[in-house]
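Narrative of activities, Objective 1.

The group set out to show that a structural description can be obtained from nothing but a protein's sequence at a throughput compatible with the screening campaign. Below is one input-output pair from the validation batch, recorded exactly as produced.
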Amino acid sequence: MAVILDKVSSADQILIWGAGAIGGTVACYLSRAGFDISAVDANREHVQAVRERGLSITGPIETFTLPLRISTPADLVGLWKIIFLCTKALHTEAAAQQLLPHLAADGVVISLQNGFNELIISHAVGHQRTMGAFINFGADVLEPGVVHFGGRGAVVIGELDGSQTERLGRIHRILLHFEPGAITSDNIWGYLWGKMGYGSLLFASALTPSSIVEVLDSRDTRPVLTALVREIMAVAVAEGVMPISFNGYDPAAFAANGTAAAIDASFEAMVAFNRRSAKTHSGVWRDIALHHRKTECDAQFAPIVNLARRRGIAIPHLQRLIALMQEVESGARPQALNNLERLAAYTPAC
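Output recorded for this entry:
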């Protein structure tokens, strides 16, 4: 069935906070659709490039360049009812505080990020002004003013309490102009927990120089990757959350009673999904290998570590992943295939 999109209204003013890989891609598509888009980014070089040449989208899906109204946080003036927060997870708290003066009293912040950032956002702006979102499309900033859109993926939004609201429907219709397959859910936390399980696989792959597909496709690495995901899914179950499948990732396969056949089927489906994308390595890998900067690892997994400790659930593989990632981030350990062996049995340095 064809999707009938709402006509774009002049009242549909949207602020994109963070105009990098995710925010830049969404901003360009919504701007091209006719929405009144403003963007904010903390990278002055990126802001200047966009001001001078527009924001360029490249990649296998399509290539185009659009002018985009953009500023740094310090230069921003105005109020918005809709703000898409698209920063890295480790910048969420600072960004939420910065955007607060620009959020209308009846406005809403939607987290187009990875992790449980909704918890931080709602603490800053209020539960009623926070909406959950889950994204799994592939994009990277290639250089200031240029974003590579490597592959489409799931886009899901939902109210934090699972309710069906008018604003949820309105924002869903807006996002359809970016991703025609976007959906709403009454279990957004299920998607977010599912993404954390899948995301742990991407973090593990970033410990190596290999591509996402190479790591997921290796029969040698699947046992340790399975153990890692099972720990995260165990915490989700203890929290009363039903994780939801997407793009080949099947949370049920990694449950305590999941079968070897189901696990292999999920790995094969994830490999097939990632083979279709021009994004060969994760953003985590790029943070380490290309940008030499701290990843989102601590910010994304800290809530799960805290919940596991509170529930008395052992998560040795996740703790090893975090410790190894910290060493790789700092340069104390190289990205190497044998890091996955250490993920199976590793004692962090004191």
